[in-house]
Design goal:
Elements (H helix, E strand, L loop, with lengths): L3 E4 L5 H10 L4 E4 L2 H4 L5 E3 L4 H10 L3 H9 L4 E4 L1 H6 E5 L11 E6 L9 E6 L9 E6 L3 E5 L4 E5 L5 E6 L2 E4 L10 H13 L1
Parallel strand pairs: 1-2, 1-3, 3-4, 4-12, 5-6
Antiparallel strand pairs: 6-9, 7-8, 10-11, 11-12
The structure holds glutamine (GLN).
The site of glutamine (GLN) has 11 residues, from helix 5.
Length: 195
Amino acid sequence: VAQVGVLALQGDVREHLAVLRGLGAEAIPVRRPEELATVSGLVIPGGESSVIDKLSRLFGIAEPLRARIAAGMPVYGTCAGLIMLADTVLDSITGQQSLGGLDVAVRRNAFGNQNDSFETDLDIPELGEPAVHAVFIRAPVVESVGPRASVLASLPDGRVVAVEQDNLLGTSFHPEVTGEHRFHERFLDRVRAAA
Ligand code: GLN
């Protein structure tokens, strides 16, 4: 695979780099537009979306990144990264912007205090067996899915927690912390196909 990146402004960057490298990809942290220009795909990690948003504008990478997303670069966002990819963010902090690309509305911190963090198994037909063990940490939920996006996974109560659209993939949960590699493989497949 061509070189891929992990957006390294804030959040669990190291975990994603480790998964990608474990799958045989050359993966680098990306902070600056010059680094973005050298990668063929990007993971946006979990963390705090309002901070990632602020820093991405401060580092001047938000606009080049929007352009790459619009041009079809494969991107995988987990948790805060999913929020960054959403066209609409609900319960955002004042002035918070997303990069957009995914035709969805995502609500931040949708599980409230009681359920700040939880784990559950998800059956995801596209990924086959076994079920995905999903860890949610102050996670967002996909509240509405527009016609261009499709649902990849939902909780038993119907709440949508994974979506994809063309070269974009987003999960509310964190596969990078549980040894679950199928989402990263799916992302790398897209990178290979786009090359
Ligand atoms: N609550 C965070 C946010 O709004 C996301 C949490 C996470 O990435 N684990 O960005």
